[in-house]
Design goal:
Elements: E1 5-9, H1 14-25, E2 29-34, H2 37-47, E3 50-53, H3 59-66, E4 74-77, H4 93-121, E5 124-129, H5 142-161, E6 167-174, E7 177-178, H6 181-185, H7 190-195, E8 203-204, H8 205-216, E9 226-229
Parallel strand pairs: 1-2, 1-4, 2-3, 4-5, 5-6, 6-9, 7-8
The chain binds NADP nicotinamide-adenine-dinucleotide phosphate.
Length: 246
């Protein structure tokens, strides 16, 4: 059997980096892509994946990478994140634009560019990293919840459009995961970012990577439509158990 090939976007940190590592361990040739090549090279050096620069908001950057790929078994659309936690009254246009470009248009462009290569594999699989914010809302979260709701609609539409084709489509929706996510959301404010996880035990990137690799490793006739994975300490985005002594 020829070597299976996986492409993971947003693989320079957090869930994406953990997924790239786990997929190498599972026997894939892994292309790990993101904007920060230095960080990707660290992931590549320790795991054996290949580091490639990619900005999913830039069509030319996408083409430069995807034009070289003739055959792909697994696409993990993971690049994304949140910017700010402002009420709609105080919304920042640039932050919203970047979130839409990254989480929604980026996912669409990557998928569109790589569908032919996924078909060519004879058993392709697209795994989109969504969020519980794709079906829940919270104060100040509209910029991010709206993009993850949209990404969820795209995933579900793809499931319909790909019916009858040899391509599976899965959405993995995590709750709180301790990565660089909160640091990016709060513009590098470490104290604010750390406060998101105060007194509770969040997931780590590897917990979500585990779900991704499990879904990918089911037999080709089995489509895991959706996985929702949260810390035990989190029941909904708004219901989090925090221990006061932590
Ligand atoms: N952490 C959570 O609590 C949580 C919960 C639910 C869902 N998620 C979702 O999980 C995914 C991964 O997030 P994470 O928690 O692992 O956060 P993270 O540690 O901040 O990682 C985000 C990754 O996305 C990449 N990225 C951002 N913009 C990009 C762009 N324009 N082009 C290419 N890559 C880009 C970043 O790399 P570069 O900066 O190097 O480009 C980085 O590798 C995101 O879609 C996020 O929305 C996270």
């Amino acid at each position: 059997m020829s070597e299976r090939v996986a492409l993971v976007t947003g693989a320079s940190a957090g869930i994406g980096a953990a997924t790239a590592r786990r997929l190498v361990e599972a026997g894939y040739r892994v292309i790990a892509a993101a904007r920060r090549l230095d960080r990707l090279e660290e992931v590549a050096a320790e795991s054996g994946c290949e580091a490639r620069r990619l900005d999913v908001t830039e069509p030319t950057s996408i083409t430069a990478l995807t034009d070289e790929i003739d055959r792909l078994d697994l696409l993990v659309n993971n690049a994304g994140g949140a910017l700010g936690l402002d009420r709609i009254e105080q919304s920042d246009d640039d932050g919203w634009r970047t979130m839409w470009e990254t989480n929604v248009l980026g996912l669409m462009r990557m998928t569109r560019a790589l569908l032919p290569a996924l078909r060519a594999s004879g058993a392709g699989h697209i795994i989109n990293v969504g969020s519980v914010s794709g079906f829940e809302v919270y104060h100040g979260g509209a910029g991010y919840t709206s993009v993850k709701h949209a990404a969820r609609a795209v995933t579900r539409t793809l499931r319909l459009e790909l019916l009858g084709e040899p391509i599976r489509i899965t959405e993995v929706n995590p709750g709180l995961v301790e990565t660089e996510f909160a640091l990016v959301r709060f513009g590098g404010d470490r104290e604010k970012a750390a406060s998101v996880y105060t007194g509770m035990t969040p997931l780590v990137g590897d917990d979500v990577a585990d779900c991704i690799v499990w879904a990918a490793s089911r037999p080709p006739h089995v489509n895991i439509d959706e996985i929702v994975v949260r810390p035990r300490d989190q029941a909904t985005v708004a219901h989090i158990h925090r221990r006061s002594s932590d």
